[in-house]
Amino acid sequence: MSVSEEELKKAIGDYMARAGGVAPAWYVGTSRHPRRRLFDEHRVAREGGWWMFKRAASPAVAHDVKDHFVRVVGTDGWADGGESEADYVYAYRKNAETCP
């Protein structure tokens, strides 16, 4: 189920607050294939790590949510560019094993 921009911002913000850590300790990105991006490319642990993803209502919404977290909240992430058709927003708390 896809969600709106405000719902996504709230869900990610609430998740980050529950997990703890300052904004730069988090990475927020977009992808058409969030599991591959999280577990293969960023090397996030499937178990024991703090990660989440949700499908946005559109790629434009996904991009806007990612930009909000990177530019306004101060998380790590690639503010410009990325997959043009990415409709998922993902977030994870970085650690010594993740990339970045």
In short:
38% of the residues lie in helices and 17% in strands. With 100 residues, it is an alpha+beta fold.
Helical fraction equals 25-40%
Low-pLDDT ranges: none
Give the SSE string: HEHEHE
Please count the beta strands (DSSP E, at least 2 residues each): 3
Number of helical segments with 4 or more residues: 3
The end-to-end span amounts to: 29 Å
- Average pLDDT, to the nearest integer? 95
How do the strands and helices of this protein lay out in sequence?
Layout: H1 5-19, E1 26-31, H2 34-41, E2 51-55, H3 59-73, E3 88-93
Helix pairs in contact: 1-3
Give a verbal description of the structure.
The structure is a single chain. Helix content is 38%, strand content 17%. It is of the alpha+beta class. The protein has one domain (5-93). Strands 1-3-2 form a three-stranded antiparallel beta sheet, with helices on both faces. Helix 1 crosses helix 3. The longest helix has 15 residues, at 5-19. 33% of the residues are buried.
Which keywords apply here?
globular, 38% helix, alpha+beta, single chain, 100 residues, 3 helices
